[in-house]
Amino acid sequence: EKLLSLLLVIVLLAVPLASCKKQEKKEKIQQSFNAYMDQLFVEEFHDDAISINFFLKNSSKFNLENEGIDLNIPTKEEFNDSYVKTLNDLDYIKNNFPYDYLTEEQKLTYDIVVDLLNRNLNLKDFYYYQTSLGSYLGINSQLPMILSEMRFDTKADIETYFEALRMTQGAFESCIRLEKEKVDFGTSLPDFILLKVVEQCNNFIESGDEIFLIPVMNSKIEAATYLSDSEKIILKGINETLVNENFRNAYIYLREEAMSLIGKGANQKSMYYLPEGKEYYKALFAESTGCNESI
Known about the structure:
The protein is an all-alpha fold and about 300 residues long. The chain has helices spanning about 1-45, 50-55, 75-95, 105-120, 140-150, 155-185, 190-205, 215-225, 230-260, 275-290. The longest helix is centred in the first third of the chain and has 43 residues, at about 1-45.
């Protein structure tokens, strides 16, 4: 009878102890999950100071205040490496964060991130189907507008903008490198798209001294209260020089290279008519919209 009583006491003590250990494990996993999500968030902004300028008011909170800029199109090796990382991220999430241990808010984050990574993986075989050039949505047409929306909260923001102007030709060179590889692969841009790229470049080049980045960004420099009058004069001059020389020359380069690609494409229709064009559009639509609707 005494032995039975002793066993009962042990059981009664063990139940709350086990419950406490399980709760401790759950809280530790929840903390680790938050830390990993923060890590993924920070990794998304690596070498992307322009996006940081758009999305984060206080980048120092995430130790992102010293990020650089990389406007170049990834090489095929870099592209493949990014998908290896995506697979590793998915495996780590699924193997280290039991769903039932997460809070309701964390479960929502888990579902969104896993879904996003899976949709991204659907594009892993389409390196030579992507393009960054176009008359409306290409980097050549979007970059001036993106730069014009940058905030100049600090001198570092101004330097980021200047660095983007300096790096534009390098970015265009990476676009052309990809398009030339696509010629060999059989997925190059059709002539009607290339002609629109040339037209867009001409419109920008022929705007002369009226390139809108000069007055728009100079007005932002003028409004920066942390600058002295002499600094404003110097920075406005740098802006005018970089826009009129580096930035304009980048568009001259792109125009000439785009013209050299005309007539080399095997497909002169839309990408739908490429061997895996339909599959690419499906994967791109699913990744861009988050929808599973058939198209």
